[in-house]
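A reminder from the course coordinator: this example appears on the midterm review sheet, so study it carefully.

Given structure:
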């Protein structure tokens, strides 16, 4: 027998399980797959546990927002475009289900290359070894020329890039988020951190022009986010640092301008890894000012089309136009 005293378990107070609060019930379990199930049927068959119902919740919020005339603002990082889901986002914009886009400099570069050349995403390791990483002259010329034009004509950076792609009849512009936003008249703002993008490595890069164009786009985004209040949806897809910080400053401006009236919208962060800033600025901060926050983890090439299909089917389930 041990020389140390033991806790006497006979003295604990137990309770019947019927009096216990249980977070999981069999009625919330997934329904088994069937070969003839529709997508909406599949979505409703997911477990009503943890993230199970949240794709449908976000989709419903997006449709409700657009029908009520509230904003749906989609911020996206470069990896989202590189995984080939731009056509999915374009389709949502064409249906009036997105009111504004915000992207970082990487998105602008990949999107321009896709539109003009049908290919993007160079081999970084090979380029570093050969000393050629980031040296694509056509990409740099296109973006740096657009920055100067935006500065000179007092246009937004994203606005100018979209206009230039459409004017040049870029052969793959049907897959370009920039070109589609320009064609549809949907604001698309480009938020650049100087020195982060390959086009800044070229002699044609004009920091004053890039800064002026990106600053104008910050104000364009803040105005587009104004309509989030009371029922809008803010999505951050795959940006870990730049766009969450831009979003936070825009929220600060709108709270300064509108006070507690700027509240009651949904902030959702979708990424294949959940990062500190994106969760803080898009999920937690939105909750702290009276909104809702959702974080979903998954590959962009799966999660974004999944959400988009849910949005389209939700919109189609009601006769009212978006």
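Designed residues:
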């Amino acid at each position: 027998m041990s020389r140390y005293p033991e806790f006497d378990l006979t003295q604990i107070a137990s309770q019947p399980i019927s009096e216990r609060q249980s977070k999981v019930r069999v009625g919330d379990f997934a329904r088994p797959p069937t070969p003839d199930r529709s997508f909406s049927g599949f979505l409703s068959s997911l477990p009503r546990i943890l993230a199970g119902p949240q794709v449908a919740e976000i989709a419903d919020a997006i449709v409700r927002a657009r029908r009520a005339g509230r904003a749906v603002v989609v911020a996206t990082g470069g990896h989202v475009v590189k995984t080939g889901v731009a056509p999915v986002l374009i389709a949502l914009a064409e249906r009036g289900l997105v009111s504004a886009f915000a992207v970082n400099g990487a998105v602008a570069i990949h999107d321009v290359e896709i539109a003009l050349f049908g290919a993007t995403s160079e081999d970084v390791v090979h380029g570093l070894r050969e000393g050629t990483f980031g040296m694509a002259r056509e990409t740099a010329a296109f973006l740096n020329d657009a920055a100067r034009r935006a500065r000179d004509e007092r246009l937004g950076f994203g606005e100018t890039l979209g206009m230039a792609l459409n004017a040049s009849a870029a052969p793959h512009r049907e897959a370009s988020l920039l070109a589609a936003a320009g064609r549809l008249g949907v604001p698309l703002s480009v938020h650049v951190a100087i020195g982060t993008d390959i086009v800044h490595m070229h002699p044609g890069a004009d920091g004053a022009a890039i800064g002026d164009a990106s600053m104008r786009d910050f104000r364009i985004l803040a105005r587009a986010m104004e309509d989030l209040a009371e029922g809008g949806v803010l999505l951050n897809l795959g940006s870990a640092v730049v766009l969450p910080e831009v979003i936070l400053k825009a929220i600060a401006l709108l709270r300064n301008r509108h006070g507690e009236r700027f509240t009651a919208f949904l902030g959702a962060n979708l990424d294949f890894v959940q990062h500190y800033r994106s969760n803080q600025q898009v999920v937690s901060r939105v909750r702290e000012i009276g909104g809702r926050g959702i974080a979903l983890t998954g590959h962009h090439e799966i999660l974004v089309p999944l959400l988009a299909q849910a949005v389209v089917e939700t919109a189609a389930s009601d006769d009212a136009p978006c």
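The longest strand covers residues 266-271. The mean pLDDT is 95.
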